[in-house]
């Protein structure tokens, strides 16, 4: 009898031990969060997933963690809010109703001394990250150059930002370096170089770039040898590297990517669609309700400018 009772007690204890819940996981553990996000987003095994260290967020009770996924040259980042006990994960954009919704982007964008066209102080500012060897960038560039200042002669300012995708575009980096050096040699010539590089995109190779650029430079009265020497120097490399780092901080991972008053728009945008976005921003800034809002307080004017035909050099009201 006693033996039976003892056996029953042992069995009960064993069952209770097996019935105990597993220890709770924590999203503050990097490996746990990485595995969870891999399952959430359907990242296959060949994609490397890396979680950052948690940092304080603007949302009380939550940390902010960035998860980066990488596959070869491609990468993307996703931001998550993780509760301080590690039990809850939020994937959401957080806004302060007292600030412009694109305040973070505006604070990160640096346009001082960047090539620009349009009216200084215009109510709509476009920062365009582009690659001279990118076919979609060519389409966007042609649409902007053909239509933007004709449709919006005083309401827009455009800044060009170098973002060469060297993994897939072999001559994009030397083209970006050379563009910087052309602007250094003769500021107004940058936009002629810009138009030439995109127009000749299908003819240029890494091997013939120097020769083809020499033809352009001679036609425009530029010192080709000086520009190419500059393009291989530290100043050009540093300038383009800074532009790339800025773009990556802003989440740019493809070209073209533009920021219209801080609003990120990735990929090629047909002119009619972009026209509507620009008009929306111009109207928004013109309304009494939004007058004075910090929408586009980017450094302006730039030293590398090409004013719009007939546009005023004074800031737009």
Can you offer a commentary on this structure?
With about 325 residues, this protein is of the alpha+beta class. About 40% of the residues lie in helices and about 15% in strands. It is built from ten helices and eleven strands. The protein has helices at about 1-20, 30-40, 105-110, 135-150, 170-185, 190-200, 210-220, 225-230, 235-250, 270-285; strands at about 50, 55, 60-70, 75-85, 90, 115-120, 125-130, 155-160, 255-260, 265, 305. A six-stranded mixed β-sheet has the order 10-9-7-8-6-11. Strands 1, 2, 3, 4 and 5 form a five-stranded antiparallel β-sheet that branches. Helix 5 packs antiparallel against helix 6 (about 190-200), helix 5 (about 170-185) crosses helix 8 (about 225-230) and helix 5 (about 170-185) packs across helix 9. The longest helix has 18 residues, at about 1-20. Mean pLDDT is about 85; it is low at about 300-315.
Give the helices and strands, then pairings.
Layout (H helix, E strand, L loop, with lengths): L1 H18 L10 H12 L6 E4 L3 E2 L5 E10 L2 E10 L5 E2 L12 H6 L7 E3 L5 E7 L4 H17 L4 E7 L9 H14 L4 H10 L9 H11 L4 H8 L2 H16 L7 E4 L2 E4 L4 H16 L18 E2 L11
Parallel strand pairs: 6-11, 7-8
Antiparallel strand pairs: 1-3, 2-3, 3-4, 4-5, 6-8, 7-9, 9-10
Helix pairs in contact: 5-6, 5-8, 5-9
């Amino acid at each position: 009898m006693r033996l039976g009772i003892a056996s029953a007690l042992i069995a009960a204890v064993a069952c209770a031990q097996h019935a105990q819940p597993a220890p709770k996981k924590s999203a503050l553990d990097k490996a746990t969060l990485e595995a969870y996000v891999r399952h959430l987003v359907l990242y296959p095994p060949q994609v490397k997933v890396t979680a950052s260290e948690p940092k304080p967020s603007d949302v009380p009770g939550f940390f902010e963690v960035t998860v980066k996924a990488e596959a070869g040259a491609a990468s993307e980042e996703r931001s998550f809010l993780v509760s301080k006990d590690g039990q809850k994960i939020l994937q959401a954009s957080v806004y302060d109703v007292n600030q412009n919704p694109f305040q973070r982007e505006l604070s990160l964008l640096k346009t001082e001394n960047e090539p620009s066209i349009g009216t200084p102080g215009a109510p709509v500012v476009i920062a365009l990250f582009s690659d001279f060897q990118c076919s979609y960038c060519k389409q966007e560039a042609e649409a902007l150059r053909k239509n933007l200042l004709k449709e919006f002669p005083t309401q827009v300012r455009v800044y060009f930002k170098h973002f060469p995708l060297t993994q897939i575009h072999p001559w994009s980096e030397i083209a970006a370096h050379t563009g910087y050096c052309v602007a250094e040699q003769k500021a107004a010539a940058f936009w002629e170089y810009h138009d030439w590089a995109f127009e000749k995109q299908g003819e240029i190779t890494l091997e013939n770039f120097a020769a083809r650029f020499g033809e352009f430079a001679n036609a425009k009265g530029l010192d080709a040898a000086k520009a190419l020497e500059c393009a291989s120097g530290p100043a050009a490399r540093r300038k383009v590297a800074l532009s790339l780092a800025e773009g990556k901080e802003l989440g740019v991972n493809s070209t073209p990517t533009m920021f219209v008053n801080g609003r990120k728009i990735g990929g090629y945008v047909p002119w009619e669609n972009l026209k509507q976005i620009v008009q929306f921003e111009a109207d928004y800034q013109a309304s009494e309700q939004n007058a004075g809002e910090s929408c586009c307080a980017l450094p302006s004017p730039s030293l590398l400018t090409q004013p719009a035909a007939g546009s005023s050099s004074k800031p737009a009201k």
